[in-house]
TrEMBL record:
InterPro entries referenced in this protein's UniProt entry, alphabetically: Glyas_Bleomycin-R_OHBP_Dase, Glyoxalase-like_dom, VOC_core
Pfam families: Glyoxalase_3
Highest taxon listed in the record's lineage: Bacteria
Record-annotated VOC domain positions: 8-150
Protein name: Glyoxalase-like protein
Length: 285
């Protein structure tokens, strides 16, 4: 039975070492960046968001070491910067946590937190969330998964933040490198009740649900063959590797990316070394 309270990918979390430098880097790549957010004290993290429709990217950095952010700090120590976890949209986080508990897994949470938000008119509001995580050990391909219930969508999906000079519209695929694509895809499929599908090149796709972005598990060699000419320096053999983004105008994408752009077949790419450990591949919508 499919999970009733969890639908497809909500956002991808890119862990970075220096939050403000990472935000400026992504701004230079043509993304509109939200004002900096600071999470609740027990989380010890801050973020910038890059808003699309219906999903987004989150640049996340540790501001103060806490027990809650220990796994994120360990990730950066071990792998450096890059995609550390993926969030699903939770319809109801408390009910969703009970759904996975009924499957024999012990959820972390649900946890309520918020961060202040400066709105376009200068007023201060708050973005409020309720999240739960699958157990830390349940991380297919080395990428943790969690679910996020947005209590205040209007303070997150702000229209002025959803228009980007590089014409990015939404996430199409999240690519995760692993020596064992079929095994890791099957693991995720069990966790979210979705059926993996083998691709012609040996990669394995798992739909996230709700017509949202797909997960794609593949080896680094398969990734290199999908994006020939794009340097993969900075990517590890196992872990979040790339985001495929739908562009509304590839000419605008190429212009905004400037000298960082690498044409690779039908895609315009930013190598991981230029995007804080994440290969960005822009494709036509």
């Amino acid at each position: 039975m499919a999970l009733k309270n969890v639908i497809g990918i909500d956002h991808a979390v890119v862990m970075v070492k220096d939050l403000d430098k990472a935000a400026e880097n992504y701004r230079q790549l043509g993304f509109t960046i939200s004002p900096r957010g600071t999470h609740s004290a027990h989380m010890g993290t801050g973020n910038y968001t890059i808003m699309f429709d219906p999903d987004y990217m989150e640049l996340l950095g540790v501001l103060v070491a806490t027990e809650h952010n220990a796994p994120a700090r360990a990730f950066v120590d071990r792998h450096g910067e890059g995609i550390e976890r993926i969030a699903f949209t939770a319809v109801d986080s408390a009910a969703g946590a009970e759904e996975i508990r009924a499957r024999g897994l012990t959820p972390i949470g649900p946890t309520d937190f918020e961060r202040p938000v400066t709105l376009p008119d200068g007023t201060i509001s708050a973005a409020k969330f309720r999240t739960f995580m699958w157990p830390t050990a349940e991380a297919p391909g080395g990428v943790r998964i969690f679910a996020c219930q947005h209590k205040t969508r209007e303070t997150v999906w702000i229209p002025e933040l959803m228009k980007h000079a590089n014409a990015a519209r939404r996430i199409k695929q999240t690519l995760i490198a692993t020596p064992e694509p079929a095994q890791e895809a099957a693991h995720l499929g069990r966790l979210i009740d979705r059926e993996p599908k083998a691709e012609a090149d040996g990669a394995v796709t798992v739909p996230s649900g709700g017509e949202r972005a797909d997960f794609v598990y593949l080896t680094l060699d398969q990734l290199g063959k999908r994006y020939p000419g794009v340097p993969l320096a900075g990517l590890s053999e196992r872990g979040g590797a790339a985001l495929v983004l739908v562009s509304g105008d590839l000419a605008a994408t190429e212009k905004a990316l400037g000298s960082t752009a690498v044409r690779s077949g039908p895609a315009i790419c930013v190598p991981p070394a230029k995007a804080n450990g994440t290969l960005l591949a822009f494709v036509a919508g």
